[in-house]
Amino acid sequence: MCLSGTLEDKLAATAAAGFDGIEIFEADLVASPWAPAELAARCADLGLSIDLYQPFRDLDSTDADRFARNLRRAERKFDVMAALGTDTVLVCSSVAPDAVDDPDRLAGQLTEAATRAGERGLRIAYEALAWGRHVSTWERSWDAVRRADSPALGLCLDSFHVLSRGGDPAGFAVVPGEKLFFLQLADAPHMDMDVLQWSRHHRLFPGQGAFDLTAFLGHVLAAGYTGPLSLEVFNDVFRQADPARAAVDAMRSLLWLEEGLAVRCPELATTPAPLAPRLSGYAFTELAVDGISGPQVAGALAALGFGHTGQHRSKPVQLWEQGAARVLLNASVVRPSAAGVAEVAAIALESADPGRSAARAEAFRAPVLPRTRGAAEADLSAVAAPDGTQVFFARTGPDGWPADFLPTGTEAGLGAGITAVDHVALTQPFDSFDEAGLFYRAVLGLEPESVTEYAAPFGLVRSRAVTGPDRAVRLALSVSLLRRGEWAPGVPAPQHIAFATDDVVATARALRAAGAPLLAVPANYHDDLDARVDLAPGLLADMRECGLFYDADGRGSYLHLFTEVLGSRVFFEVVQRLDGYDGYGTLNAPVRMAAHRRLRRTAETPAPA
Ligand code: MG
Ligand code: MG
């Protein structure tokens, strides 16, 4: 249920991603034309073991006749398991009105079922559903298994069911290792909602949510568990997403978990992936442009104080520089897809060891992209991020990538006070937001920050940044909360590069004097700001004059401005961080979006005759 599709789709995706085995979910089998033995043969061909059959629901009953019928139902499922060649069935705690509450009676019924399973060489892994009628904690399920004391009965631990109820995995130490039959792992975001709905819609792969699964797994292994690590992730997006990609995402989550475990519990560690080298900033950001958008973006960069310093030796690529901020305009990439579009094609990160960065990416299932380069050109390794952006690992230096550019004779621009790239903001495709967070976390060693959600003019938007430890690399990811329909008058999937300055007011005045296409901020915004924030004298007037936005966090404040959209989805931001402000001015995004939308409306509407 982690993957979309039919059994055939799921098996192919799972095997291709390198998994050792699977659980068979009954609904998939029922819908499949394959007989159980045929399914078993296909799994064997793919190198997949069948490690569990599930779910067997509502086994126990206060009604003796119904319990007898449940045992007959179990025997039929044991027949299926025998044909599948799997020896473990998951029995989850009952949610039915006739569920048994009395601990000894429950243990007795579990023993009866386990005895029948044991006679056939099978075993039952009993799982406490977080919403079980009487058994809803792992302690209660362990109490039943302990009382039953049947060799064919053990526990299935599911991280969601334990952690969603605030359970303490340190308690697993009381369970003998041989009673831990099966382990299911799922992460989830913090949510304050009904636990069944939370589980059914919002589970995530490890490393994508808020649970401490490294600690959880450490406790399970310390208790003596030696079975498979299985992922059981019910998620509205994954249920619709390409199963091949989701399976790779899932495998990456386990590799990430394994690495975290090696740090926390070195005695449990296996083969480590290469450690993530330090990333010290953006080497460059590359925009794909065409004959329409290229001159438009180049003109804006010039007005922002950038100089066109270099021309690529073999490709139609321009290098624009100001301070340590570098932008490439590349007219040779296949993207952009439509005429007049500009979009972020690549980000290049300064890596202390680009080769090791690439080796780590491969270890985390992010294949290094094939790349054509000229004889004298720098060998830059790149991997594809989930949204298709190429991520380069680079080192800026005399014999590094800048050597690929012939000097134009123009100096790097200085005029506007831009010093570096502060962050890059990329809207993610609906299907890959959580995948992207884990990609940057695992592959690049960036840490996800907390999730922010806001009401934008055209729908709710979720935003989450991933950052390096010293904030040298900041990447702001956002996504629409719901799949978009046809009506999309806002800027579709906006992307922007934010440049840093030490004096945004001075920079803004320089940009205005140079005729930069700055985004106008409505007077209502500054009136509201004046009402809710005590700003330093004169600052509000400067902000009105310069079209600046404002935000503050517990530490400091943030002054920022935007350009208009250049080539349909890309724009620039200029930011000044004061006193350690650590956010992205997300509060102001709806105002910015409305202003961008207004310009689109103006551009689309023919002038009155
Ligand atoms: Mg295998
Ligand atoms: Mg489960």
Helix % is 25-40%
Specify the structural class: alpha/beta
Give the low-confidence spans: none
β-strand number: 24
Do you know the CATH topology of the largest domain? Answer: 2,3-Dihydroxybiphenyl 1,2-Dioxygenase, domain 1
How many structural domains in the coordinates?
2
The top-level CATH class of the largest domain is Alpha Beta
* Main pleated sheet: 9 strands, mixed
Q: Determine Rg (CA atoms, Å).
A: 28 Å
Instruction: Please report the number of helical segments.
Output: 17
Structural overview:
This protein is α/β, with parallel strands linked by helices and 609 residues long. It has 2 domains: 212 residues, TIM Barrel; 325 residues, 2,3-Dihydroxybiphenyl 1,2-Dioxygenase, domain 1 (Roll), CATH 3.10.180. It is 32% helix and 24% strand. Strands 16, 17, 18, 19, 20, 21, 22, 23 and 24 form a 9-stranded mixed β-sheet that branches. An 8-stranded mixed β-sheet has the order 13-14-12-8-11-10-9-15. α5 links the parallel β3 and β4. It starts with 6 loop residues before the first helix and ends in a 5-residue tail after the last helix. The mean pLDDT is 93. The site of one magnesium ion (MG) has 4 residues, from loops.
